[in-house]
Amino acid sequence: MNLSSTFSTTVRRAQVVRTLDFVQETSAAEVGVMIRFLVLAIVLTSAVGVYLWSRMEVPSLAVELDRARSELGRAEVAQARMRVELATIRQPGRLQAGADRLGLVPPVALVMVSLPSEAAVGPDGGP
After folding, report:
1. Domain ranges (residues) in the chain
2. Which of 48, 52, 86, 108 is the most exposed place for a label (fewest CB within 10 A)?
3. Radius of gyration for the alpha carbons in the chain, expressed in angstroms and rounded
4. What pTM was computed for the model?
5. What tens digit of pLDDT does each residue of 74-114 get?
6. Up-side HSE of residue 30: CA atoms within 13 Å toward CB?
7. Which residues lie below 8 Å from residue 57, measured CB to CB, with a gap of 6+?
8. Per-residue pLDDT tens for 69-79?
9. Residue 34 in 3-state DSSP?
C-alpha cells in the first residue's frame, strides 16, 4: 500500500467520523427547531402561492364580470322592446286598424241559417 492511498482512506474515515459526531450531537431540541422551520417554510410558501393565484384570477374574473354586465344590458334592452311590442299588440284599436287595412267591413245584417240534422243527411250529403 502506498502512502497516498493510506492518506485518502484516513481522510475518508475522518469525514465519516465527523458526520457521525454531528448526527449524534444533534439534540432533540435542535431537531424540533428544524421541524418548526420546515413547517413555517411550507406554510409561507403555501400562503404566497395562494396570494399569487388570487392575483392572477382577478383580471380574468373582471373580464367575465364585464361580459355578464354587457349581456345584462342587452337583455334589458330586449325586454323593454318586447314590453312596447306587447303593449302595442294589446291595444283594441290595432285590430280595427288591421281590418280596415285589409278592406274588411263589419257585417250589415245578422243572418240565421238552419242546417238539417245529421239523421236527415245521408253519407253522400243528400237526403
Report:
1. 10-104
2. 108
3. 48
4. 0.40
5. 999 999 999 999 888 888 788 788 888 898 888 777 778 88
6. 6
7. none
8. 999 999 999 99
9. helix
